[in-house]
């Protein structure tokens, strides 16, 4: 994983997907009011990127949970 700054993370895939945007994440709210969602501006066929926000909508660090779905290239 790569930490690009507060609440901005990306994960390199071992095998690329056939298309960009084939990945999805489920928004998640944890006990601290933080939400995790997909960061489409950083996604590619070989990278999954997520953003973490607090209840005020500001970027924040924290645990993130995501799932990646797509067809392998």
Description:
The chain is mainly beta. It is 0% helix and 30% strand. It contains no helices and five strands. It has a five-stranded antiparallel β-sheet with strand order 1-2-5-4-3, with no helix packed on it. The model has no long low-confidence stretch (mean pLDDT 78).
Largest sheet: 5 strands, antiparallel
Mean pLDDT: 78
Strand content: 25-35%
Structural class: mainly beta
What distance lies between the first and last C-alpha atoms, to the nearest angstrom?
A: 21 Å
Keywords:
single chain, 73 residues, mainly beta, 30% strand
Describe the secondary-structure layout.
Blueprint: E1 2-5, E2 8-12, E3 28-29, E4 35-38, E5 47-53
Antiparallel strand pairs: 1-2, 2-5, 3-4, 4-5
What's a concise summary of this model?
The chain is mostly beta strands. It has no helices and 5 strands.
